[in-house]
Amino acid sequence: MQTAPLQEAGLTKGEIKVYTALLSLGSSTTGPIIEKSGIAKSIVYQILDKLMQKGLISYIVKNKTKYFQASEPGKIMDYIDERDKQLHANKKKVEDLIPQLLLMKNSTEQSHIQIYSGMKGVQTACEHIYQKLKRGEDFNALGVPTYQEKKWHLYWKRDHIRRAKTGITCRLLFNKGTDPGILKNRNSYKGAEARYMPTNVKSPAWILNYKDTTAIILQSGNGLAIEIVNQEIADSFKSYFEEFWKETKPFS
Q1: Structural domain harbouring 188
Q2: First vs last Cα of the chain: how many Å apart?
Q3: Which of 58, 77, 96 is the endpoint of a domain?
Q4: 113 three-class SS
Q5: Domain finish residue from 77, 112, 136
Q6: Is the pLDDT assigned to residue 169 strictly greater than 90?
Q7: Are 44 and 133 part of one and the same domain?
Q8: Residue 19 located in a structural domain
Q9: Whole-angstrom Cα distance, residue 155 to residue 151?
Q10: Residue 245's closest CA among 207, 203, 204?
């Protein structure tokens, strides 16, 4: 019998052996369970106790002796449902802890560089915006390339909907030659303003800048993001962005 799904559901190999042994034995004392399952006597009581906590076995006492029996296999689904509820509750608790953990990380690690690869990696780097920025704060994008694959445009459209809901604003400078429809789309989202760069410089990489973070992002090929967390570097790129922004005009 394939027991991998039971392990993925949260049962240990020992628990599976004892449970399936009891299914075969019916009501039984520990002796036959040990023989049938191959579990050592020293840990069988520990495993039996865990299975009882999970509602998968029970016992009765006859003549001062415990007889264990397996619950109906359908009880495993009840255990999985309960485990899912606990995981969901724990996930919410961990989510509430994330801001505190980030504060701890930032207080001990003032500067660092992280490299992310692939589309998922780039998305992870961009996701840090929502960890560091609050409603009313903003980020900047400098030198967004003229060409991006369709999958990226779809991703940014979804992201702008999310950004607008969080109350975070942004200013975006696209390289000249970018399809006007793209700038029109970005300007349609609340809190976003997109313009053309004031120069003809074109580069496949662009710069994301906010708070103490600067990310150099390449969306072509497999995708790559180099994230630099350093306040002085972030301030420097912010200055560059502001100078470029002064030389631009609103998109129309």
Answers
A1: 104-246
A2: 67
A3: 77
A4: strand
A5: 77
A6: yes
A7: no
A8: yes
A9: 6
A10: 207
